[in-house]
Amino acid sequence: MTRPAFFLLTAAFMAVSAACTAPRPATEAQPLASTGPRWPEGGLSSEETDLARRRMIETQIMSRGVKDARVLEALERVPRHDFVPPSLRQQAYTDRPLPIGLDQTISQPYIVALMSELAGVKPGSRVLEIGTGSGYQAAVLAEMGAEVYSVEILEPLARQAAGILERLGYRNVHVRHGDGYLGWPEAAPFDAVLITAAPPRVPEPLKEQLKTGGKLIAPVGVGEQELIVITRTGEKTFDTRPVIPVRFVPMTGKAQE
């Protein structure tokens, strides 16, 4: 796909502002993939989805301070509407989380972009993602050139996401059904770890699976949550800094400390 020139986007794009509050979740899993047209009958054309995606990048991502060209280009290439239920595809490029079933959501585009930028992912990076969900964050990381190892505790979502990622051609994403608190030790160490659900505190196994110099990005807290960046500075030393208040679904797992 030809990469777009972001300077061609016009001032006709209206600024979009949306809260991070998650919508009411669906009560059961919904099929996220289809082998037919990307949009249901009567939906947007491919030209319109391309335009919506570029508008999303300019008004929701770039205008809020995300500048990493690799992140912006990855967001341009990933069809977010393929990762949401068909009934919600018209909302795929709004800056809000959307329900994907089983009380889970796909994160809002800005948060996906911010976490990707904070992780400092480069081509060839090995990245651990905890909470595959829809598979959208993994696809963005893969488009940035990372080898992604993603763990999802809900088996139906793991299977759904793996199917979508395979259909879209992401061979550098590996999805496993398992307990994210344990990470993926046999694939460690990782250049970055992204947690896409909120634990009360960061699990020690995930910190230990970071390379020295690697970064762990996570929403942490019960009730009030904060997105933090943990950098491994030595064998047993870590530096932590807060970023912004956030609201994520809680992280679950049998190995909680």
The rounded Rg comes to 17 Å
Q: Biggest β-sheet, characterized? A: 7 strands, mixed
- DSSP, total strands: 9
**Order of the strands making up the biggest sheet:** 5-4-3-6-7-8-9
Q: Structural class per helix/strand content?
A: alpha/beta
pLDDT < 50 stretches: 1-42
The whole-number mean of residue pLDDT values reads 85
Q: Per DSSP, what share of the residues sits in E-state strands of 2 or more residues?
A: 15-25%
Helix content: 10-25%
Order of helical and strand elements: HHEEHEHEHEEHEEE
Characterize this entry briefly.
By secondary structure, this protein is of the alpha/beta class.
What does this structure look like?
The chain is an alpha/beta fold. The protein contains six helices and nine strands; from the N terminus they run ααββαβαβαββαβββ. Helix 2 crosses helix 4.
List keywords for this structure.
257 residues; alpha/beta; two-stranded antiparallel sheet; 6 helices; 24% helix; globular
Ordered list of secondary-structure elements with their pairings:
Elements lengths: L45 H16 L7 H9 L20 E4 L2 E3 L2 H11 L6 E5 L5 H8 L3 E6 L2 H13 L5 E5 L12 E6 L8 H5 L1 E11 L4 E8 L5 E9 L11
Parallel strand pairs: 3-4, 3-6, 4-5, 6-7
Antiparallel strand pairs: 1-2, 7-8, 8-9
Helix pairs in contact: 2-4
